[in-house]
Design brief:
Blueprint: H1 2-8, H2 17-46, E1 54-57, H3 59-70, E2 75-79, E3 85-88, H4 89-106, E4 113-118, E5 121-127, H5 157-167, E6 171-176, E7 181-187
Parallel strand pairs: 2-4
Antiparallel strand pairs: 1-3, 4-5, 5-7, 6-7
Helix pairs in contact: 3-4, 4-5
Length: 191
């Protein structure tokens, strides 16, 4: 951070304070996306050698922790007392981060993201306007969604989520329902 500040310091006189803040926020956002992209590329490269180390986990608690981290006002979470799951903790952390980040990124403004966890099934649903009802999503690497004429991501997230589900004997499915909502379900078969 200090390098960035020192590098930008001579240019601070070119912008008003509010403009500089906007530019710095934009630069930090781009840097975070690049970091995430490099991390996903690393995970993709390692996928063939990755072996899960499953343990018993409380999915409900992990979801609540992630919701609180991202901002609980954005989510509607429903659950009953659900059984623990048997899943690799690092893979599950990636899965939750990716799915909830995607739900936030692709949802329509001011809409809640619904999360339900009943029995052995997790469902995440969000309103979106990018794809029409019935649209098919491919779990192939580097398949990306165009938004506003640009591609902001690599197209590895859902592929990695699906791969991690398979490695942990869980089943991932998704669809765009009649209302145009993105509905993703994971059935934790081995729980």
């Amino acid at each position: 951070r200090s390098t960035l500040i020192l590098t930008l310091f001579p240019y601070t006189t070119l912008f008003r304070s509010s403009e500089l803040s906007i530019h710095l926020h934009h630069a930090m956002s781009i840097a975070q996306r690049m970091k995430d992209s490099y991390h996903k590329l690393f995970l993709f490269k390692q996928l063939g050698q990755t072996t899960p180390n499953p343990s018993t986990l409380s999915l409900g608690e992990l979801i609540l922790d992630k919701i609180n981290e991202l901002g609980p006002e954005k989510f509607l979470f429903r659950s009953r007392i659900a059984p623990n799951i048997f899943f690799d903790k690092e893979m599950l952390d990636f899965l939750l981060n990716e799915l909830l980040d995607n739900a936030l990124s692709f949802s329509t403004p001011k809409s809640e993201i619904e999360i339900e966890y009943f029995g052995s099934e997790l469902m995440i649903k969000n309103k979106q306007t990018i794809h029409p009802p019935g649209h098919h999503v491919d779990f192939t690497p580097f398949s990306r969604v165009e938004r506003d004429g640009s591609f902001e991501r690599l197209g590895l997230g859902l592929f990695l989520v699906d791969s991690y589900c398979q490695k942990n004997d869980a089943k991932l499915s998704l669809q765009f329902n009649e209302q145009g909502e993105f509905v993703l379900k994971i059935n934790f078969v081995n729980s």
